[in-house]
Amino acid sequence: MPRRFPLQPLLDLAQNHTDAAARNLHALKVAWQGAEEKHRQLISYRGDYQARLLQATKMGMQVNSLKDFQLFLGKLEAAIRQQAEEVERCKKRWEEGRHEWQAKQRKLKAFDTLSLRHQNSEKKREDKLEQREQDELSGKKFEQEEPKDQTHS
């Protein structure tokens, strides 16, 4: 019977850590994509608002309304800059998460390699034991048949 891989608990732990890092990486990617989508929406909203401002100025508008538009556009620009920074932070967190996941993958692969080597070693050991048993059985059978041949001679 093959012996248990002595590092199996560490292999299992490495697998769990890799799975957790993969789930974290996915969550970071979703957050990054959400931040990018919000950034795109803000830019689109700015374009719509600028188009409305242009249309309103063509029709004529009061100075107070123009100031309000400009004030709002300034706040919108600030929100767009902040969201762009958030996109970069999310991207950086995702890249850090990807590096962590890759490190976990490498560790898992090392344990997998050791496990495979152990399995191959155990298979060879089992094969040798089986061959030894077969040799012993053949030897016993040969010994039992030998005296019979001598009596008939």
Description of the structure:
- The chain has 153 residues and is mainly alpha-helical.
- It has one domain (8-151): Helix Hairpins (Orthogonal Bundle), CATH 1.10.287.
- Helix content is 92%, strand content 0%.
- The protein contains 2 helices and no strands.
- It has helices spanning 8-59, 63-151.
- The relative contact order is 0.13.
- The mean pLDDT is 91.
Short description, anyone?
With 153 residues, the chain is mainly alpha-helical. It has helices spanning 8-59, 63-151.
List keywords for this structure.
mainly alpha; 0% strand; Helix Hairpins; single chain; 92% helix
Write the layout of secondary structure elements.
Blueprint: H1 8-59, H2 63-151
Helix pairs in contact: 1-2
Mean pLDDT: 91
CATH class term: Mainly Alpha
The separation of the N and C termini measures 44 Å
Percentage of residues in helical conformation: over 70%
Cα shape: rod-shaped
The number of distinct structural domains comes to 1
DSSP, total strands:
0
Q: Assign the CATH topology.
A: Helix Hairpins
CATH architecture name: Orthogonal Bundle
What pattern of helices and strands is seen along the backbone? Answer: HH
The largest pleated sheet is described as:
none
Stretches with pLDDT under 50, minimum 5 residues: none
